[in-house]
Amino acid sequence: MSRLRSLILLLLLAIFVSPAATQSLRERRQVASPDGTIQLSLNMTDAGEPRYSVTVDGKPFILPSELGFDARGGLNLRDGFHFFSDGTVFFSMDNDWTCPWGVNKQMHQHGNVMMVCMQNSTAQLCLEFQVFNDGFGFRYSVLANHADSIQVTDELTRFRFARDGDAWAITPDYNTYEFLYHKQLLSQMPYAATPMTFRTADGLYGSIHEAALVDFPEMMLYADDDSLCFRAELAEWPDGVKARFNGDGFISPWRTCQIARDAVGLINSSLILNLNEPSKLPGDCGWIRPMKYIGVWWGMHLGIQTWAMDDRHGATTENALRYIDFAADNNIDAVLFEGWNEGWENWGGSQRFDYTRPYADFDVERICRHARERGVAIISHHETGGNIYNYERQLDTAYQWLADHGIHCVKTGYAGGFPDGHSHHGQFAVRHYQRVVETAARYHVMLDVHEPIKPTGLCRTWPNLMTGEGARGMEWNAWSDGNPPEHHEILPFTRLLAGPMDYTPGTFDILFTQSRDLPQRRKWNDQDKGTSRVNTTLAKQLANWVILYSPLQMASDLIENYAGHPAFQFFRDFDPDCDWSSALAGEIGEYVVVVRRAGERYFLAASTNEDARTVSVPLLFLKEGEAYVATIYADAPDADWKSNPTAYTITQQRVVRGDVLTIRMAPGGGQAVLFELIKK
Ligand code: NOJ
Ligand code: CA
């Protein structure tokens, strides 16, 4: 409730300070982006229903669309509203802020705000709109007049597109995001999880998502009666209620729409982060830092090791020490251990994992000591199997145990159904995920959340929420038909717009030649019919370390497959702690080119779908007056993801700002380039 109170206070303050010049706009209830290209208007129907609409470059973009909620018990958040006289406030934001990590550490928030308050006989409803040059967002704050509790049964928000176009999305599901994307006309898309990305017929790019999802169910999109209209659908509680609050009121997450003139404009947008609140972790956050990591992990997915303690157990002391040594010798910050704790024998059953009891063959004291001595961080693992009651019961002891062992990073997992009919994406689950983030922060632990609630920019407020899964990652290649080449050229324009992803790129044994015929291999849940493999070239695996941004970036393969491999030098050199990024070129599902700067070095990467492609990239990001050596990891001329995936070349050339790099990529291929200053 304190957030609600402060919002209302802000609103009242703003009413008194807002300049008279906004008076006429106030009557029209319109707000535009700072560059004037995006205009948002709010109107009221005769029945007292608020409607918003948006134009871009003077052309209709979102036609008048519904706002509000349905709720139980006499609370009417649908109609009968009238604007407060003088209840509309305008102000502008133009400020810089910084992140401890992120694609860009220096951020700029430049937007215009319109807050409009209205009331009916049951409630006061304030709508806050923020319009930036890269899109808009709006959220609801509701104050109920006389309610003991609030039960929202539906959200009325609509997105009525003015024009058809192509759209990319995954199927919405209350429990998972691990699907392949499909491309369909907006008019034929039946439903979508967000981010849903689109390109309208007149060439505008956009993506609908949400920001600051802290205490609400997730929003999905369902086509409404009208073919170009999507309605917000909320994940429900087991009894069908969508969201519940005490009688005071609530603030919704932001409903967001990124807008760009080209596809990479979406990647370069900071709308989602800008709509989140500043960090709640002030002071010394030295324990929060980007890291490169390897892990006792891929062996389990390949079926040659196990999580549970048996004769094929992966997380043994011996393996742990070997991985720590490999990390220390190869400039890798951290090692993840899965299957270190008791409970895996009940995975899929009672799901009673114990987060403070290591398996007998995992000598945690010795492993932690060795890691400390070798300067390597440990990433622990908390698989819950979905049994969040069991996890919540142990939360404080589990995180205290991590702190006692000097462990500042944990990967959580929710592979299994939630109890009592709760879904992974309903309000109950969202509250759980948030509780874990706040607990972890108290114990100075960074998080990598698998089977998460989708990211909505909360890492601005809780910078210990580093990364997560929430899409089909590398693991699917081990035991299914895998992720097709184009998956990696869709993710940057969809899922990754929401936030970092722990995709875990970097499998070098693309055809599983080293593991396929091992006697101990058992096909993990039998989905590998013997044809599973990684569907890219090797050079594209390197490129994905740069393109698929994660501040915790994993090299996924078994360390045996990296030892002595010349291309692994790229990961040794790679710095996940970037300062600045720019997506330079790309089209959704076709190709993408991204550059990131970390200190004085630049990492550039490109990748392509099944089509071979040549892209010319002017090196305009390099510093004027400096010369660089570019180390280029490219597809060999005869490389092809299907027939010759591991053929690559490493070459070097001297470059200066303004040179043009010609990037040739094989079908399903990519390229990764490191630029280092030549010291004078
Ligand atoms: C699914 C996660 O995505 C994967 O990384 C993990 O190894 C398994 N669950 C087991 O926790
Ligand atoms: Ca997963």
Could you characterize what this model shows?
- With 680 residues, this protein is α+β, with helices and mostly antiparallel strands.
- Among the domains are: 3-274, Beta-galactosidase, Chain A, domain 5; 476-500 and 509-549 and 559-680, Alpha-Beta Barrel (TIM Barrel), CATH 3.20.20.
- Helices cover 18% and strands 35% of the residues.
- The strands form six sheets. Strands 7, 8, 9, 10, 13, 14, 16, 17, 21 and 22 form a ten-stranded antiparallel β-sheet that branches. The protein has an eight-stranded antiparallel β-sheet with strand order 1-2-3-4-12-19-18-15. Strands 28-27-26-25-24-23-29 form a seven-stranded parallel β-sheet.
- Helix 6 (317-329) runs parallel beside helix 7 and helix 8 runs parallel beside helix 9.
- The radius of gyration is 25 Å and the shape is globular.
- The relative contact order is 0.09.
- Calcium ion (CA) binds at residues 178, 450-451, 469, 475.
Q: Secondary structure elements and their pairing?
A:
Elements: H1 2-17, H2 23-28, E1 30-32, E2 38-44, E3 50-56, E4 59-66, E5 69-71, E6 76-77, E7 82-98, E8 106-119, E9 123-132, E10 135-144, E11 149-155, E12 158-161, E13 165-169, E14 182-185, E15 191-193, E16 196-200, E17 205-211, E18 219-223, E19 229-234, E20 243-246, E21 249-251, E22 254-260, H3 263-267, H4 271-274, E23 291-296, H5 298-302, H6 317-329, E24 334-337, H7 364-373, E25 377-383, H8 388-404, E26 409-413, H9 427-442, E27 446-449, E28 465-468, H10 475-479, H11 487-490, H12 495-498, H13 538-547, E29 552-554, H14 569-573, E30 580-587, E31 591-598, E32 601-608, E33 613-618, E34 627-635, E35 648-656, E36 660-665, E37 670-677
Parallel strand pairs: 23-24, 23-29, 24-25, 25-26, 26-27, 27-28
Antiparallel strand pairs: 1-2, 2-3, 3-4, 4-12, 5-6, 5-11, 7-8, 8-9, 9-10, 10-21, 10-22, 11-20, 12-19, 13-14, 13-16, 15-18, 16-17, 17-22, 18-19, 30-31, 31-32, 32-37, 33-36, 34-35, 34-37
Helix pairs in contact: 6-7, 8-9
Bound molecules: 1-deoxynojirimycin (NOJ) and calcium ion.
